Amino acid sequence: MWRAEMRVTLKPGVLDPQGRAVRQKLANLGWTGVSDVRVGKFLELLLEAPDRAAAVALVEEMGRRLLANPVLEDFSFDLEER
Amino acid sequence: MWRAEMRVTLKPGVLDPQGRAVRQKLANLGWTGVSDVRVGKFLELLLEAPDRAAAVALVEEMGRRLLANPVLEDFSFDLEER
């Protein structure tokens, strides 16, 4: 059993209205030293795979085909055996 | 300047309909070996702080007061100096 932690982030240059709203709200609350906020997704997956290479290939393909939008988003992940 | 990466995740036991939908969709696409998916948020913050201890305290407080819902969510973060 493998546990993957995947970060899905907007590509550099893609506008992030949610991040801007969070930054504005932080500033309103007095945290004026925050110059940028970007909001992405954090996915935790449990999966079966015979070895690390197979698990990497699976998660890579799931990220490319479903979990991230390849036009707007990048993704990266870590894997640990359970 | 400090860069924080924060992971905001549903507490164990809190139902995650979005994660369940992703798992179902993965299964429909043939990835039947995925037994669990949890979906959280991934935040990237750039902030000013005089040192690491101050940056940790700031991010900790922002997480507690705004970025995570303390009833439903946990958060953790890493910091690097820029």
Please give a handful of descriptors for the protein shown.
3-stranded antiparallel β-sheet, elongated, 82 residues, alpha+beta, Mth169, Chain: A, homodimer
How do the helices and strands follow one another from N- to C-terminus of chain A?
EHEHE
CATH top level label of chain A: Alpha Beta
Number of strands of chain A: 3
Largest sheet of chain A: 3 strands, antiparallel
The fold-level CATH name of chain A is Mth169, Chain: A
Strand content of chain A: 35-45%
* CATH architecture classification of chain A: 2-Layer Sandwich
Helix content of chain A: 25-40%
CATH superfamily of chain A: Phosphoribosylformylglycinamidine synthase subunit PurS
**Large-scale geometry of chain A:** elongated
Structural class of chain A: alpha+beta
Which pair has the most extensive contact? A-B, 33 and 33 residues
What distance lies between the first and last C-alpha atoms of chain A, to the nearest angstrom?
5 Å
Oligomer: homodimer
Mean pLDDT of chain A: 96
Low-confidence stretches of chain A: none
List the strand order in the largest sheet of chain A. 2-1-3
Overall structural domain count of chain A = 1
Radius of gyration of chain A: 16 Å
Helix run count of chain A: 2
Helix and strand layout, with pairings?
The structure is a homodimer of 82-residue chains.
Chain A: E1 2-10, H1 17-28, E2 34-47, H2 52-67, E3 73-81
Antiparallel strand pairs in A: 1-2, 1-3
